[in-house]
Amino acid sequence: MYQLFSIGGVGWLGSSFSPPPRFFGAGLILLAPSSSIFPGADLAADRRLYLPMVAFAALAGLLLQGIKRWMILAPVAVGLSVLSFVRARIWLTEQTLWTEAVARAPRKVRPLLQLSRASDAGTALRILDKAQAIAPDDPRPIQEKGLRLLAAKRPDLALVQFERALILAPNDPDLLNDRGVAHTFLGQRDAAVEDFTHVLSINPCQGTARRNLERLGITYPVPCP
Q: What is the 3-state secondary structure (H, E, C) of 172-207?
């Protein structure tokens, strides 16, 4: 629907207006289907400008006709150099990248999850507390807490987090598998087998749960189709 509207709008502009307003309007129309007044969920939102920039670049070319090149190229070169330096510093590490994403979209959970994965354990848990406060019904921050606690060799505390997450998503295969891993580390073999078997009853092709079950000496009888 949006695509048809955009194509029709660009065609109408092409036949109704002189070149500068034609390209300006075309850029706005091409931008409209993906525009939002809300902040983007992640940094990939800049892809929305790829197609509209074709029209905006043509408009810039028309407006800059007759201006001496050096008056444009010198400040553009300086500006792009500074911008490239700043962006390179931000993209230098995952932590700086996702820190900026969180600053741009402070109420989004995904950038916080990604930033927690790029942070040390203590900082990650604080970041995940913030994500949980933003989305208390989302099991992902709680699951991430459990995974970080597992990595820190605290399966007892990780198990508590997985149990909390499973209250929100009772049949989530990944959560069930994670809880089974926590049970395994705690020496609770029967509980671990039950979790891995539950995962495979939902999805027989869940390779991680199948391998975890085989490590416990059990072969799941139903093959992956």
A: CHHHHHHHHHHHHHCCCHHHHHHHHHHHHHHCCCCH
User: Distance of alpha carbon 53 from its chain centroid, rounded?
Assistant: 24
Query: Percentages helix, strand, coil for the chain, rounded to the nearest 5?
Result: 75, 0, 25
Owner of token pair 């040390």 = 120
User: Where, residue-wise, is CATH 1.25.40.10 in the chain?
Assistant: 94-215
Give me 217's structure tokens: 């000496």
pLDDT in tens, 103-147: 999 999 999 999 999 999 999 999 999 999 999 999 999 999 999
Q: What is the pTM of this model?
A: 0.66
Residues 88-103 pLDDT 10s: 888 889 999 999 999 9
Q: Which of the four pLDDT bands, split at 50, 70 and 90, describes residue 48?
A: low
Residues in CB range of 118: below 8 A, 6 or more apart: 93, 94, 95, 98
Round to whole Å and give the CA distance between 56 and 64. Answer: 12
Contacts of 108 (CB under 8 A, 6+ apart): 39, 41, 42, 101, 102, 134
Q: Which two tokens stand for residue 210?
A: 């199948």
CATH topology of domain 94-215: 1.25.40
Per-residue b or e along 161-173, where b marks 16 or more CB atoms closer than 10 Å to that residue's CB: bbebbbeebeebb
The span from the CA of 126 to the CA of 116, in Å, is 8
